[in-house]
Structures are given as structure tokens and as C-alpha cells.
Amino acid sequence: MAQAVRRLESRLGGWAIERRRTIIAAAFVLSAVAASGTAFLEFSADDRIYFFRDNPQLVAAEAMENTYGETSNVFFAVAPEDGNATSARALEAALWLTDGAWQIPFAARVDSLTNFQHSMADEDDIVVRDLVDGSALGDAAERARVRATALAEPLLAGRLIARDGGVSGVNVTVALPGGDKMREGALVAEFSYGLAERVRARFPGIDVRVTGLVIFNQAIMQVSL
Question: Residue 140: beta bridge partners?
């Protein structure tokens, strides 16, 4: 048995040596054919690539976008070290961040605790205004009103302010044109990270964490590169 194996190895070896040029050329051709597929490889900043085209949730989301338009978001979590999102300093930081967030490329809407449209009765009138009055941040009673209102408001509690009142949020709706989502998303992410850094520098004791769909997609891109 061993001799038969050795004879087979000898014959195959001799055959390969005699046809070495043909084998080498064939190997190069096969390698080139295999490598040609890399021309169709590409990076994508679109989270939809993780779903099959007939995924029910994806189909429903695309149907909604066809009706109302496609949007994405960046979310800033404003986290004061003292755990009080309605302190004067935390509210001032949230106000400043809310204004600055409008400068994010392709920003279409900015929602936060501070610019939430709160309605109240004034005798026979209904008054609608921003929940937070920037000129009254030094008033403890006003800050207490803001906190109580925010934590009792279903559209805010658990969304733009933590239910324990320790962290608030600024949500930026972003409408990417879609011509080059990789470049557009990178512009949004770069500006957003820079804006968060400016808040940290301007308001010591206030941390800002950046997340959202645009940031998620960019993080996936960076890991892939």
C-alpha cells in the first residue's frame, strides 16, 4: 500500500514538473478571475444593507419614507456630573447645544427639553412657548417648574429627559440628500463630535455623548475600513 502511494506521488510530481508552466499560468488566470470580483465590493453607510429586501419592517419603513420623506438623526445626551439635568448650568448647556445643533449639515429639525412647546392657561388665553426661558435660569422656582413639567409630560419623559431627571437629550433630525451618503454622513458626524467637544469645553461638569443613526452608520464604516 505504501509503495503504491509513493508511486502515485512520483507520477503526479513528474506530471506537475513537466507541465509546470501551464500550471503556473492557470494559477495566475484563476487568481485574476477570483480577484476581479473585488471590483464590485464597496462600503456602504446605509444600515438597510443588514436587512433582506422583503423584510416586513424594512418594507413598512420604506413605505412611510415614500410618503413623508427619508430622515435620519443625531442624538446628544447631556449628562451633568451632579445628575441634575434641570440645574441652571445643565439647562444653559442644553440651550446652547440646541441653538448650535441647527448648524449641523442637513439639519431639518432640533428637538430638546429646552425648546419643547409647552402650553399653559393664562386666564382666558392659551399661551404656547418654549418650556425653558433662558432668562430665568437663575430662578429656582422656575427650574422646579421645568423639572416637574418635563417629568410629567409623556412626550418628554423617557425621550428627551431621563425619567429620573438625570440626563436630557437633544435630537437632531437630519435629511441627507442621498447623493453620497458616506460623505454626507461623515460631514454630519464630524460636525456633531466637534459640537459636543465645544459644549464640554464651554460648560465644565457637563458631559455630552453623541449617538443616533448617522453616528451608528459612521461607526460601522470606520470599523470596516
Answer: none
What residues does each domain of the chain span?
A: 2-41, 70-224
Greater pLDDT, 145 or 42: 145
Strand partners, 76: 170, 210
* Total length of the chain: 225
| DSSP string of the chain, one letter each residue | -HHHHHHHHHHHHHHHHHTHHHHHHHHHHHHHHHHHGGGG------GGGGS-TT-HHHHHHHHHHHHH---EEEEEEEEETTS-TTSHHHHHHHHHHHHHHTTSTTEEEEEETTT-EEEEEETTEEEEEESS-GGGTT-HHHHHHHHHHHHH-TTTBTTTB-TTSS-EEEEEEE---SS-HHHHHHHHHHHHHHHHHHHHHHSTTEEEEEESHHHHHHHHHHHH-
Q: What is the CA radius of gyration of the chain?
A: 29
Output the pTM of the full model.
Answer: 0.76
- Grid-cell match 470580483, residue found: 37
- Which residue type does 38 have? T
- Alpha-carbon distance of 121 to 128, in angstroms, equals 9
Three-class DSSP category at 171: strand
CA gap 74, 157 in Å, rounded: 19
Tens of pLDDT, residues 16-26: 677 778 878 77
Q: What is d(CA 97, CA 170) in angstroms, rounded to the nearest whole number?
A: 8
